[in-house]
Every structure is written in structure tokens, then in C-alpha cells.
Amino acid sequence: MYAKIYFRLAIGLLIPILLLNNCTKNHLPEPAICYQTDIEPIIISNCTQSGCHNGSDVVAGYNFSSYEGILKAVTPGDYRSSELYNVLLIPFGEKRMPQAPYDLLRDMDIALIARWIEEGAVNTIDCQSACDTSNIGFALTIKPIISTYCTGCHSGSQPQGDIDLNSWTKVKPFVDNGSLLGSIKHSSPFSAMPKNGSMLPNCQIRLIEKWIADGAPNN
Amino acid sequence: MRRIFTFLIIILGFSFVQAQEPSMLDLLGEDKTINYEAYAFKSPRVINSHSLEMLHAGSLDFRILHRFGRLDQGLYDVFGLDNASIRLSFDYGITSNLTAGFGRTNQKKELDGFVKYRILRQSTGARTMPISLLWISGITWNGLKDPFPGVSTTSSDRLAYYHQVIVGRKFSDRFSLQLAPTILHRNITPQSLDPNTLYAAELGMRYKLSNRLALLLDYTHVFNRFPGLIVRNPLSIGVDIETGGHVFQLHFTNAAGLNERAYLTDINGSWLKGEIQFGFNLSRVFQLKNPTDN
User: Fold this and answer.
1) Is the Cβ pair B102, A9 closer than 8 Å?
2) pLDDT per position in chain A (219 positions), as tens?
3) In Å, how far is A56's CA from the nearest CA of chain B?
4) ipTM score above 0.85
5) Do A26 and B151 touch (CB under 8 A)?
6) Helix (H, G, I), strand (E, B), or coil: what is residue B56?
7) Which of A10, A21, A79 sits opposite B115 (nearest CB)?
8) Which of A14, A20, B138, B294 is 20 to 30 Å apart from B18, CA to CA?
């Protein structure tokens, strides 16, 4: 009997896998990248420390304190052959960047740099279009940001610090006491969030700020 | 008395002739016995990946897979014991060369199913075959109510497929090794640069320390991971302990995922930074049907 059931299961699995192999090539929508607010801050904070790729040290001939300097390590339109991307993948050794004891970049920062290069490594400064604060809704704008950055720790049966940010009603108290904005803007006395990570991209902070200024509606 | 004696002689003589038959054929070089290698791995999974071992015909393998939270979370979470992900699965040996199974993971409420077929089996004797060769196809389905919050998706976006060929050999009583080229397709990826189709190769090893205890290694190298951080490739090291009908696999791994899509594509921890977790697999095999073939 079991053999029969499982044989049917096997056939039932094989047919969709092999015959109706409904392969699509989708990806989740991505916000536009703004060099000034998304890329520059990552590179400035991770690469231009004293003794590294800044204007006075110019280690290995690279000065990353300007767009032109960064472009020297970049092949616009091809992230795989860009030195700036490739050094970030090295996990250990002398070529590792940023060098120890500095932390490696977060995966999402590396991914962002890669996509910026792939899309042409454009020097976008006027980023109003990239950060559209005209139409903010909790479900559409704020919840996805919180899901990306916060609910990894702040949800579930035992949320970190007993702070659960899984729904509007649970988020609202932290809006009201100012700790949500204080934490993501890394202003004291609030505990800086995301913990052990770099700050949220400026656009995301601006979106949350605007939403709170509008009265943090549940829309 | 004499009759009985004659009868016995006839019987004995007859059985003698019968017993003689195979050895006479031996002399002619027509030994038909094939000695199949068995127990290259103790269970049909190395740790996360499929192994070259199959279930016997008619046996049901009930597996409970557990991965605790990250060890680096410290004592507050009892080094990860507070947060566990779990997969329950039922695999059944339809024949000795064909297994089908399904499982469910609590992460992403994901269902998965697979079909595993053994094409070649390592053997000596009448047919010498130096390796075992297996083919596996599987599918995973994301069962969350809203799998990608804020994004409208089609039902096919929930699916991922994988195909795998395992080439492996039991080199000695103690040591087995397998290599498994793998292709995995996700219908949706989180990022545009993240390739939908991933190419990978799995390396699985088992080294037996005693009759009940063996060391295991399971590493999958993903060739086109994005971003291409090799420290994110799933690496699991552990032991399997056999206790009667159960096989316990205790291990440390940087992959929280419990099915092929999850452990290959989800963001795994980095071994270098101690972002690993403790996990165990528990396997209980029930023989539901008397084995008719090997």
C-alpha cells in the first residue's frame, strides 16, 4: 500500500519537475540606487579610514574619498571584473578588504555596490526620484523596511529585548516613545540599530521619518 | 531398514549432486553472485545532502531534522537552543533502487519532495562496478500566506527545482566519498543580480571510527553565488551514531536551511566568524514490507 502511495507521489513529483518544469526568471523589485545616499556612505565609512584609501594615505594608489577615485577600481557595467567588488569577497589573508580588524561588509552592502556597478556606476546626486517620499504607506513602504532590517531579531516567540515589530500595533509604541527613529538614526541614548550592522540607507531612514511625521498612519 | 538406508543414500547423493552443481559452474567461471557494497553511508543523507545510500525496498525513513540558532548568540539564547528550525520528512523505498519522499520545514512553511533513483550500484563479483551513480530530482514549495510581503507574485514564484547526480564510492570499510554536481533553479530571486539557476557541487565524506560512530563532512560549493562569498557555502561537519534502529547525526553547520533550496540559497553564516549552529538529524527506519529484493 505504501509502495503504491509513494509510487504515485514519485510520478506526481516527476511530472511537474521534468515535463511542466515551469521555470520562470523573476526577481523581487528593487529600489533605484542613488550613488550619493546609498553607495558613497558605505565606501566612505568602510574604505577611507586613516591608513587606508583616503586623500592623505592613498594606499595602493586608491583614494576613495571622491567619485572619480572610486571609479578607478570599477569597470562600469560589469561588476564581476571590478576590483572594488572582487576584493570585498576575499574572506581572509592580506588581500582581504576591509582589512582586519575591520569587519567585512554586509552581504547586502556588497550586493548594492555590485548592482550600482552593473547599472553603470553612475554618479547620481539628485536623488529625489530614487527616494520617493510622496506616497508612503505602512503596508507598502514601512513594513517591508522593518521586515528587511528589524524582524529578523524583533519577532517570533522570543523577540530580542522583548521588542516585537511584526505589526503596526506592535510598532506604534516605539514610534510614540521615539525609540524607533532614535535607534535607526543612531542617536543617543537609544541603542543603535540594526545591532552590529551599519545604519539603514538614508532613503529608508527618510521614509520612516516622513511616515512618523505624518502621524505614523496604519495605511 | 535396508530400504531406509537406500533412501538416505539416494537423498544424500541427490543433495551432493545439487551441492556440486554451483562449484562445477565455478570452475567454468560462471559464478552469478554479485556482491553489492552496502552502507557507504549510514543513512540516505550525508548531513544536509542526499547520500549515495538508498533505502531498502519497503522501508520508511522518518527523519526529524533540527537546527538550533547561532552559537554566537551566547548564553542569553543558550548558544542558540532557544531558536530551532525543524523539518519532518517521510522517505519510502519503493524498490531498492527507487526512493520517493517529502518533507516540511517550519521556515517559510516550505514543502519539498524528491525522487531518487540509483542507476549504478558499486559491486564486485560477477559484475564489477567501481562506483555508485544516482540521480535525484526535487521540488520545493514556499507555503507562506504572503511569501514576498508587498510584492504581487504568481504561484510559480513559490517553486524551486533541483537536480543532482551523485557519483560515489565506498573505498574501504571505513571510508566513503561522493561528489554530486547539482543544478538548482529558483523561479524568483531576491535580487536582480542573483542568478535564478545555481550550479553547485557537493562533496560528502564518511570516515568510520567504530561500528557505531562515524565522522561526516558535507560541503557544497556554489559556483555562481551572489554575492560570491565562499564563506557562505554550506559546510557541515558532524558524527553519526547508530543506536539500533535509530541513526543520530550530530553536527555543526553554517547553514540553517533544511532543504536543498534553503541551504544553498539562503544567507548562511560564516564559519570564520563563528556564525554556525548546532543541529541534529534523527532517522528512524520502519520496515513496512518484507524485503523481497536486495
Assistant:
1) yes
2) 677 777 777 777 777 666 555 678 888 888 888 888 788 888 888 888 778 888 888 888 888 888 888 888 889 999 999 999 999 998 888 888 888 778 888 888 899 999 999 998 888 876 665 567 777 888 888 888 887 778 777 877 777 788 888 888 888 889 988 889 888 887 777 887 877 656 787 778 888 888 998 888 888
3) 31
4) no
5) no
6) coil
7) A10
8) B294
